[in-house]
Amino acid sequence: MRKQLPDLAVTGAVALVVLGPLLLGSGFWLVGDMVFVPDQPWKPAWLGLDGALPRAVPMDALVSLASYVIPGALVQKALLLGGFLAGGLGVARLVREQAWFARAAAITLFCWNPWVHERLLIGQWAILLGYLLLPWVALAALRLRRDPRDPGNLAPAAIVLVLSGVCSPSSGVMAVGVLAVLGLTRDRRGWWRVALVAVVANLPWLVPALTADAVRVSTDGVFAGFAARAESGAGTLASLLSLGGIWKTSILAGERTSAVLVLLSCLLSIAALGGLWRGAPDRVRWLGLGGAALVLALLPTVGPGAALLEGLGSAVPGVALLRDSHRFLAPLGLVLAVGVAHAVTLVRAQVRPGRGALWSGVALLVVAPVLLLPSLAWGGGGEIQRSSYPRAWADVADIVGPDDVTVVLPWAGSYRGFDWNHRRAVLDPAPRFLPGTVLVDDSVRLTDIVVPPEDPRVVAVSRALDQADPAAALREQGVRWVLVEEGMGAVDTPDAPVRYDAGGLTLLDLAADGPVATGETDVRPGMARWQEILVAFGHGLAFLLLLVAVTWILRPGSNGRHTT
């Protein structure tokens, strides 16, 4: 335990410096896709029972359950802080044979890099948590490879695969890839066990994705639109090699636009890869993992790569869920973290009397990630400020019923810039704040293309809003409420009585002027019984797998055998 104290200290310090404004104050971080609310109501949609693509299944279900016990602001703090602690301590355990300063270098590089900065500022907190679980996936893979015929060695792998799949579909896919590259051996008899565990662990999102046959997923231009970008004159490859290059250039750190700093970051990556090559016992596997991640992130940017992926997405619609290929650069961060620990150890081995100056090289490798990216400190250099919801949001939530359908205006994309949130773009909180079914235009507006809606219910609402009498058309579709969010420009609203108007929100009651359809409509589609059974079965199997794996590890006499 004493050996782990430096790891905990370094990880805690990194987490505090990054998350300090959130941890030390009240309110929420609301930015990009990062949306937390004070009390997230329970909905079948959180389990994928609404027929929509399962982008946050089952993570939204867990957040909803947690917010019944503790306030949503504390849920956000706990998840982000817990994720950073898990990531730092996990990567330190992965290189535990190294000295404390080498482990510190691994922690710093893994938790403080452009990939983390960009995912945090784009608000993809669940994908960030999946990344921070990767060291534990690697630990489970190394244990599995030691004796693949022992079924008990699958228990740690099952746990981390389930947790990764909970974070997001892409996190689940990445975890399976890391486990396969680092854990599988030439003995193919164990492959089917790993494959079965991997599939079961990801059933909570796989089953809803496969049964949502009414969903339209556009692939036209999306892979190119979400492809990695060159942040500076150093080029796209240099950005990716240094763990940057996200497609959303508006959230880039200022230092990442400097070719000099990007190239210096590349030197750090090269030093880490050199340390991996010279010091790691499994260097081929580690380098193969890092190379695969780099190629996958680079693919849409090279020649016909985007067209190839679009063609694949047209044939297999679910592939479009993975359109942001830059996120799959995450395993390279793990590879570089392991490599920099070995690089530090190699430099330390050269320190002899008269060569004490090499200690400065050791120190530089430890702090280099921070020096090269100071903008990650204190909430992205102060970019992410805390916010609190106006009272009006809770008032509207008290009016809307759990069986009601609400349409949110303006009908122009799903991101909002509220005054109370410092005009920072954030995914509309209404679907998570209000009970019932809440529909927002889910089209995505990029710089040069607009990705059309993928939810057929949204398409039906769009048709209704285009009618001569949109209020009547919406009632025919089963819509009870129209919520107008003010401050986003002029909005054409249906003609209906105002039920609530305060705090930047106006709630229109369509039922006041006529009956609202209660049966199945395009906006309120029914889900076949067999689909509900399959989705529930998928969740049940994954939970059972997690329960069996935890029980196996915690059984009497297993403590000594289940260390990795």
Automatic annotation (TrEMBL):
<feature type="transmembrane region" description="Helical">
    <location>
        <begin position="154"/>
        <end position="184"/>
    </location>
</feature>
<feature type="transmembrane region" description="Helical">
    <location>
        <begin position="259"/>
        <end position="277"/>
    </location>
</feature>
<keyword id="KW-0472">Membrane</keyword>
<feature type="transmembrane region" description="Helical">
    <location>
        <begin position="99"/>
        <end position="116"/>
    </location>
</feature>
<feature type="transmembrane region" description="Helical">
    <location>
        <begin position="533"/>
        <end position="554"/>
    </location>
</feature>
<keyword id="KW-1133">Transmembrane helix</keyword>
<feature type="transmembrane region" description="Helical">
    <location>
        <begin position="122"/>
        <end position="142"/>
    </location>
</feature>
<feature type="transmembrane region" description="Helical">
    <location>
        <begin position="12"/>
        <end position="32"/>
    </location>
</feature>
<feature type="transmembrane region" description="Helical">
    <location>
        <begin position="68"/>
        <end position="92"/>
    </location>
</feature>
<feature type="transmembrane region" description="Helical">
    <location>
        <begin position="190"/>
        <end position="210"/>
    </location>
</feature>
<feature type="transmembrane region" description="Helical">
    <location>
        <begin position="356"/>
        <end position="378"/>
    </location>
</feature>
<keyword id="KW-0812">Transmembrane</keyword>
<feature type="transmembrane region" description="Helical">
    <location>
        <begin position="222"/>
        <end position="247"/>
    </location>
</feature>
<feature type="transmembrane region" description="Helical">
    <location>
        <begin position="328"/>
        <end position="349"/>
    </location>
</feature>
<protein>
    <recommendedName>
        <fullName>Transmembrane protein</fullName>
    </recommendedName>
</protein>
<feature type="transmembrane region" description="Helical">
    <location>
        <begin position="284"/>
        <end position="308"/>
    </location>
</feature>
